[in-house]
Amino acid sequence: MTKISTGAWVEIEQIVLKPEERAPSLPPETKAVPYVMRVSGFLAESAELGQEVTIHTLIGRELRGTLRVANPSYNHSFGETVPELLTIGTEAENF
Amino acid sequence: MTMHDTSYAAVMARKNAIMKQSLGIDYDDYIQSPIAFDYERMMAETSYTMDDIRRIQRETKVGDTPLFELRNLTAAVRRISEPGKGATILLKDEAANASGSFKARRAAISAYQALIKGYRGMIAATSGNYGAAVASQAAQRGLKSIIVQEVFDSRGVGQPEIVEKGRKCEAYGAEVIKLSVGPELFYMLLRTLEETGFFNASLYTPFGIRGVESLGYEIAEQVRARYGKDPDAVVITHAGGGNLTGTARGLLQAGCTESRIVACSVDLSGLHMASDRDFNRKAFTTGHTGFGVPFATWPDRVDVPRNAARSLRYMDEYQLVSQGEVFYITELLTKIEGIERGPAGNTSLTAAVTLARQMDEDQIVVVQETEYTGAGKHHNSQLAFARANGIEVRRGNPVDNVPGKAIVIPEHLAQVQGRVQDLDKLRRSYLKNAAERLPIAEWTDSDFEFLAADIKKDGEWVRNQGVA
């Protein structure tokens, strides 16, 4: 596995609460899974994915967790066209 | 750094001490009983005048947003209304605030307060628009910001709208703590406040709510200047209650005592807000009944000891709209009014269509917000995501809309009808919640007086309900 360099923008993951440590009175499907945190920051020391690492967040705070993603990115979009919307407000529809 | 026990129970037990240190407000000073507290004095002692609020907001690109007359939509509503009906629909374009929503008004006063009190940074727990507002205001005031946000389910998947809101927080330089589904968001907020000593930019402090007052005040000024009268109704998207509370208070301060205050939420009945499975089946991340109903019927379920956002205190009416209706109106706004705005902000616009149809032609209904739009935060994104997650999306009669199962987009404007939520039922539910805090037998005259004011009724009505 390739090492991710010091200073790279990465995302870590941390299990904040195990299922048995979670808040009382949760729905069963929520209670069954851990409470998980993900935060992005700059990698303090080069490491491989899956290793325990330290990051410095955008405000300079130090956080520890499992290295999950190198160069985390936003890929959300406008989504696949929903044709049902297209004719709303057009001549084709006498609204 | 002092090491504390970070277990769920231990952090929650330190709640009051963390709150006091992170807000600089001693709530004990206002609390009169397990139910009553001196709400007006708490709001007054923020010690900001309306002029102060507007000056502070102008410094950081907030407020003075345009008020547009939606001429084509108004004409379309008149075509489907009885003769003489069809009020003029006005839209307050809050997307023009720094960070793209009215939430900047709330964050602006919190950031100013954090700055003058000497905090180095501020923290907010939020579904998103408010996080972006806090990050944007913090950036302008030279403060650090941390946003604690519920983003993904146990598969690691989040609705496009929520992912976009997280991106926006990060774009303004915030540290974004992205969390899986659960009410432990509050626990995480407390932990982070304790670790950093930052200011708690809660949505529900008096500072935040006072910041929204300028919105109601501007509406009064703008409508009077252009139409020579007060608005007959103001429709407000309702979730946690701050938007409604602040706007209504601002209208009252401007002397608009006769304007009807109409709340509106997207109806998400049947979906559980703390469910890992339902999380991505909502198609809305705010402005819905999952927040609107519980916050109206017990405002103090929040991250401060007493909530400054108390919607039933100001609400005259509560309209519900379906997911499909809001998406239809969002598309119609784009096509006939030539402006693209985010779907969640168009919740109140959807209710305004229903109201305008019932109101006289010479009346005015104001939709008091819009929000920015873009990739993710767009009705096409939300609908495509719903469809990909097995939710049926089709055109039809919106009465067939079933949250989490089918989103039915109206075929015609006349099908946009919403429905009315029984306000007295909500008021009774509030009283039941109060009775759980303190048995009715122990309610004093001052408790009755507080409760009556808090649900906009008189003491006799409260006494006649016989709840519990």
What does this structure look like?
- With 95 residues, chain A is mainly beta.
- Chain A has helices spanning 28-31, 83-86; strands at residues 9-17, 35-43, 52-56, 62-70.
- Chain B has 468 residues and is of the alpha/beta class.
- In chain B, 43% of the residues lie in helices and 13% in strands.
- In chain B, the strands form 3 sheets. A 7-stranded mixed β-sheet of chain B has the order 1-2-10-7-8-9-13, sandwiched between helices. In chain B, strands 5-4-3-6 form a 4-stranded parallel β-sheet, sandwiched between helices. A two-stranded parallel sheet of chain B has the order 11-12.
- The longest helix of chain B has 22 residues, at 206-227.
- The chains are: A mainly beta (95), B alpha/beta (468).
Task: Give the topology.
The complex is a heterodimer of chains A (95) and B (468).
Chain A: E1 9-17, H1 28-31, E2 35-43, E3 52-56, E4 62-70, H2 83-86
Antiparallel strand pairs in A: 1-2, 1-4, 2-3, 3-4
Chain B: H1 8-13, H2 15-23, H3 39-44, H4 50-59, E1 67-69, H5 71-79, E2 88-92, H6 103-116, E3 121-125, H7 129-141, E4 144-152, H8 160-171, E5 175-180, H9 185-196, E6 199-200, H10 206-227, E7 233-237, H11 242-253, E8 260-266, H12 289-297, E9 317-321, H13 323-337, H14 347-358, E10 364-367, H15 379-388, E11 392-395, E12 406-409, E13 419-420, H16 423-437, H17 445-454, H18 459-463
Parallel strand pairs in B: 2-10, 3-4, 3-6, 4-5, 7-8, 7-10, 8-9, 11-12
Antiparallel strand pairs in B: 1-2, 9-13
Helix pairs in contact in B: 4-10, 6-7, 6-10, 7-8, 10-11
